[in-house]
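Thanks for the sequence, V.! I ran Class I SAM-dependent methyltransferase right away. Repeating your input here for the record:
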Amino acid sequence: MSFAVPSEVYARFMGRYAEPLASVFAAFAGVSTSQRVLDVGCGPGALAAHLYSIGAEVSAIDPSPPFVAAIRQRLPDVDVRKGTAEELPYGNAEFDAAVAQLVVHFMTDPVGGIRQMARVTRPGGMVAACVWDGPTGALAPFWDAVHVLDPAAEDEALLSGAHRGHLTALFEDAGLRSVVEEPITADIEHPTFEEWWEPYTFGVGPAGEYVRGLDADARARLESVARGRLGPGPFRVVATAWAARGIV
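Predicted structure:
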């Protein structure tokens, strides 16, 4: 799974959805001014930037060196480190909240990662995460087009948390209390089909890897099917994510 890409490439692929989602997710998580918050799997900083803008004391961690470098440049006051959710390099109860936006489904051990988030959060603090819904998330229009040509293709609907109740089960297995799970949405307008399509050719994540694995003819067929379904633009993608929060 490749996320070791330049931050500007990721921003064109997923940042266009992650940035509007960040404010909705932070509100769901209940993050407020002056709280110490850890952003786990921070990417190039969509959520961290929003948390910083509302006055939270933000720390961040991600396994991708280009993303770590991008946040250090973008948010020099944020303590950002290279690392994974499963091995967080922080002491017990260091934070008021730990949050993970669009990350749990890529953790090698989701329960272990969430358990680590709980460990570094103080008793009574909040752990929260969100993951795109498989059938209606940001990438659903892409995978819908794929399945017209390749019905057996394994899309991201199979990843951890991608359906109602998955995150709740993971949170409860990690020992969190009073878990609440709700759908949240981001509404994004794409001005042209080309603006929507091109980032899928960058090789980012499962969708990008799928496109990179196609030969030129198959890629052209997929592009044609997607264009036929979405039109030339402008068009809107209303992307739904499942969000869960629980108390340590």
